[in-house]
């Protein structure tokens, strides 16, 4: 018997349909002739708890028993999936060949092969590989089934990640709770995670940056220029590089005042003047994180709430596709499905008839991209071909999310948004001034979506500009100088934290090592598309973060944890390096055994440190002020520029009566009395 092992029931139905076995329905599988299709429920096996490796690990607070470092890893079958697991095990006993048909990624490989190993299956293994589950994609994948050994390394990498996560969570959560948790609530329990702890650090660092931010003034100018025809337009001063500080601002007020004097009725010359027709394609359909971020902005929904809604639309109502996807593109094979999808959308909501009439189902756009789809196990979230559905079954939030998904899909078949972009550059008194305007010409997809908040660059139309020619002479008629004040970085929201977890773009600003920057950019950030919402929820649940008026703040408990946890656990750089090592396992350049040996070494060292601290060899965790306090301790280095006077250098000092109590002071003391505790 040839057995197809799928990740979930919906996947089994899609593959079973093409195989022609759906009319052979049995309890937990389909079978017709010598072909059977069965399914798991995601990770149907779970890692055993520490006490499975010895009674000494049953007591959470027994730090002396740690570390727990399994030689032979044990798996368990949760009771809620035991029935389906029994079905799978029975079918494996009859199978001569197993075709792994789980998701085309690392996790999919782990889900299937863990089952095969647990059940002792040793016969032929093959691999079915596709990111699309439409009929055409399934047929193509069935015709190209691979030998199982081609994807074996994916399994090894997946095991490495899962086991490393287990070692971190089970050992360090226990060790750190015993050593450092007293007095921090929720039964004094601390939770350490390979992804959650670096995520918490992002929030703690952002809070520290805000709390210690020292604003300063900077200066801008807008100059009115008059043409020979008495037309007046405004251009913005382009600050020369040698006038900019490290933040890109001009702080030289005397220089600005001198330039203003020169500009009084000064001659000016047009350097550049051109108008160009530009176009913007429709914003792509949603990935899960893109949907979570935008629904957070538009609807005020939490990331976990959006995931729950998207899961309901997919599993219960079947009107949208699989939601746990990091992809925003569609396979070319699904282009032929567009008329059917449109028909289903119209049947569900007849009010959209005109909207759909204005869409061109045959339009080929950037969304059809097999190369992008093949990087992931699932395509973008889109409406399905299910037509028999009443919108009244959806609550207000579900309806809003469904419409977002639906409208993004329809937008792909609308024309590009077109506009005329005019740019004028003027030189006067040795400085450059720039004016720009954009005039909409073809609304295109904006007729449907309007101004889409997901798009980072919103069109700033600006006032109409006169028609000018290069070298045309002008007169400066007025100067408007503005004094502005720098602002601290914004507090995280769930949407912006999700974005930072995915891109690490703010964290990267402070990473100077180019090699490390490349490593971070080559990974997909912290966590996976399907797990980031749960990680954020866990940080709230543990009391490490709190939400006030939609903004995320670290708590004292969270800040004290990050102050105590070594960088190797809390730093996103470490997580990125681990992901790079996992990629090495996938490529066959590193073995599972080598990776785990390193992880065990690190865990042993960290647990040893916690044991010493628990024995009283270290001071109690540092106390910090709450987020928002100006005297919160932050990480400093000797010779850093003083944040108060910006002239002196920081020096670490101690008190005569208590030399261990260290603080940062300014080298210009007593002129500058800067003071802050050493973190």
Protein model, in words:
By secondary structure, the protein is of the alpha+beta class. It has 5 domains: 2-144, Rossmann fold, CATH 3.40.50.140; 160-213 and 498-617, Topoisomerase I, domain 2 (Orthogonal Bundle), CATH 1.10.460; 219-276 and 418-442 and 454-485, Topoisomerase I, domain 3, CATH 2.70.20.10; 288-411, Topoisomerase I, domain 4 (Orthogonal Bundle), CATH 1.10.290.10; 636-679, no CATH class. Helices cover 37% and strands 18% of the residues. It is built from 22 helices and 20 strands. The strands form 5 sheets. A 7-stranded mixed beta sheet has the order 2-3-4-1-7-8-9, sandwiched between helices. A 6-stranded antiparallel barrel has the order 10-11-14-13-12-15. Strands 18-19-20 form a 3-stranded antiparallel beta sheet, with no helix packed on it. Helix 8 (288-299) packs antiparallel against helix 15 (494-503). The longest helix has 29 residues, at 152-180. The radius of gyration is 30 Å and the shape is flat. The model is unreliable at 183-187 and 617-633 (pLDDT under 50).
